[in-house]
């Protein structure tokens, strides 16, 4: 299955692109996607534990299973206000 | 009103969104761009947002804070793009029958915004720029 990954701010600069389609095993979790992205883009690891994921517009923990076509966002530490 | 805008914030519109006859207090907070962080001279800031999620989170936290403090209403606009020193990055308005709730709620809301709303600030200074909140950059101090 495929998911669409969107990168923001420091994550976008680390990866060098805004969006990416990623192929995953059916039923893969957010944690599996994270490992795959860290392998593909080692610079993301430097962002460390502060990196969160969202599916649609909601934060998603590592154990959340992804659906085919899911829209996933990488959320580096936020700094609004 | 909970919105992310790419132009100067209309603070009067944010205030009007919380007005009502039951209010004894209306508080309007402007978070503005300052010209320094620690000992570094800041030239300007650049904000980026995941807009649909940011607007959803601004509203979600707004509902949470409104309930917790017994507010009449809460509204917020956050700006993205390039901001000059002195410009407002965020405007929050609260209203309540009594002032303590309206004042406390502003601090609560801004603190929650800084934790969970997907908006990022890049600080530009003489000789470089850094995303605030990342491991290589300074922590966000608002």
In short:
The complex is a heterodimer of chains A (81) and B (142). Chain A has one domain (2-75): Roll (Ubiquitin-like (UB roll)), CATH 3.10.20.30.
As laid out across the biggest beta sheet of chain A, the strand order is: 2-1-5-3-4
- The fraction of residues assigned to DSSP E strands of chain B is 35-45%
CATH superfamily of chain B: Molybdopterin biosynthesis MoaE subunit
- Overall 3D form of chain B: elongated
Tell me the number of strands of chain A: 5
Strand content of chain A: 25-35%
The overall pLDDT average of chain B reads 93
Rg of chain A, Å, rounded: 12 Å
Largest sheet of chain A: 5 strands, mixed
**Which structural class fits the helix and strand makeup of chain A?**
alpha+beta
Secondary-structure element sequence of chain B? EHEEEHEEEHEE
User: Gap between N and C termini of chain A, in Å?
Assistant: 37 Å
Question: Helix tally of chain A?
Answer: 2
Q: Fraction of residues of chain A in helices? A: 10-25%
- Reading the helices and strands of chain A in chain order gives EHEHEEE
Task: Provide the domain count of chain A.
Answer: 1
Low-confidence stretches of chain A: none
Helix content of chain B: 25-40%
CATH homology-level superfamily of chain A: Beta-grasp domain
Instruction: Please state the structural category of chain B.
Output: alpha+beta
Topology:
The complex is a heterodimer of chains A (about 80) and B (about 140).
Chain A: E1 2-7, H1 9-15, E2 19-23, H2 30-40, E3 52-55, E4 58-60, E5 71-75
Chain B: E1 2-5, H1 11-16, E2 25-32, E3 36-37, E4 40-49, H2 51-69, E5 73-79, E6 81-84, E7 88-96, H3 99-116, E8 119-125, E9 128-131
């Amino acid at each position: 299955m495929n998911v669409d990954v969107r990168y923001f701010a420091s994550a976008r600069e680390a990866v060098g692109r805004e969006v990416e389609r990623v192929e995953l095993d059916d039923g893969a979790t957010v944690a599996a996607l994270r490992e795959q992205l860290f392998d593909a883009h080692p610079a993301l690891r430097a962002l460390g534990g502060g990196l969160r994921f969202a599916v649609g517009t909601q934060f998603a923990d590592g154990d959340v299973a992804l659906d085919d076509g899911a829209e996933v966002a990488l959320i580096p530490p936020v700094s609004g206000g | 009103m909970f919105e992310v805008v790419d132009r100067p914030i209309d603070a009067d519109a944010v205030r009007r969104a919380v007005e009502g006859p039951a209010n004894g207090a209306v508080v309007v907070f402007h978070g503005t761009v300052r010209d320094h962080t620690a000992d570094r001279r800041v030239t300007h800031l650049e904000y980026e947002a995941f807009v649909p999620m940011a607007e959803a989170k601004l509203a979600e936290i707004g509902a949470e804070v409104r309930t917790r403090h017994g507010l009449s209403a809460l509204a917020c606009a956050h700006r993205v793009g390039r901001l000059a020193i002195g410009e407002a990055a965020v405007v929050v308005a609260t209203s309540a029958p009594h002032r303590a709730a309206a004042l406390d709620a502003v601090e609560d809301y801004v603190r929650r915004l800084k934790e969970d709303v997907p908006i990022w600030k890049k600080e530009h200074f003489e000789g470089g720029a850094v995303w605030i909140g990342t491991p290589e950059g300074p922590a966000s101090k608002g």
